[in-house]
Amino acid sequence: MTKHAQSLKLLNTARGQLEAVIRMVEENAYCVDISKQILATIALLKRANSVILKKHIETCVKNALQQGDFENKLKELEEVFRYMERIL
Amino acid sequence: MTKHAQSLKLLNTARGQLEAVIRMVEENAYCVDISKQILATIALLKRANSVILKKHIETCVKNALQQGDFENKLKELEEVFRYMERIL
Amino acid sequence: MTKHAQSLKLLNTARGQLEAVIRMVEENAYCVDISKQILATIALLKRANSVILKKHIETCVKNALQQGDFENKLKELEEVFRYMERIL
Amino acid sequence: MTKHAQSLKLLNTARGQLEAVIRMVEENAYCVDISKQILATIALLKRANSVILKKHIETCVKNALQQGDFENKLKELEEVFRYMERIL
């Protein structure tokens, strides 16, 4: 099982949901129902993002720390927090 | 041009971006880059949601109001605000 | 009971929580604990915002609609959705 | 200058803003204006949270890493990401 099996599952579900949203829009479904599906897709992507970052910390960051190379990794984590502040 | 042309364009861009994210995960791209792409997709979906709700107000809600039928429409708007509070 | 009794209660709780956060920072409490308290305050404010908007729809918007004056009210609701998209 | 000078400034501004919001509610100001002020306060708190986490990484996490003690710190960062996913 690749380290991203869980996030891949979430991302594929989000893709299926997004395709359903696009069909709803093309078939002129009710706007409020479309909005709810978009928000549900956003919730899935937020979950996938957390899982990706969790795996990142458990693997990439941890491996780098074991080799004493953490300056870069810490800078990246700060950047991710900023991204999340701006977008979420 | 259908009333949802703008949101459809945003949603299709978001789908393309999500497919790129899935490829990145499958090809074991760097986690932080994957996270940034997921967050960028979320930003697109938030935009699409706003556009959908704008059109909803300008068409469905307005038409209903002109026929004096607004109880239902107002209840729905309250529900959308609650959805957005919980998910965004 | 004023129409904003519920939101006022939430806002006052949020203020108390924010004052506690400021004390934690001044007393050099652990950063992760401070972050959790800030996020909890944000959750309270998101709740208060939903309650305010619910009351707005049930009173201001409804009254205006009954007098057939809805153009302005609808424009405002669109604006609120855009604000929520950008900030939440 | 304490390491939290910047976040303290943001938090104090947010407190002043929240007090203004409470006054607006007590004086029955227009709901949409109240909502905008609450959202502006949330934006300030999100900024303060990012600054707190940046300082956390630059000081607490970095010091711990230099002493080879990172298991705990990494677990905490995972938790913060989860908190941010749920609340932001």
UniProtKB/TrEMBL annotation, chains A, B, C, D:
It comes from the Bacteria. Gene3D superfamilies: Metal-sensitive repressor, helix protomer. Its main location: cytoplasm. Pfam families: Trns_repr_metal. Keywords: Cytoplasm, Metal-binding. It is found in: Cytoplasm. Homodimer. Belongs to the FrmR/RcnR family. This is Copper-sensing transcriptional repressor CsoR. It comes from Thermatribacter velox.
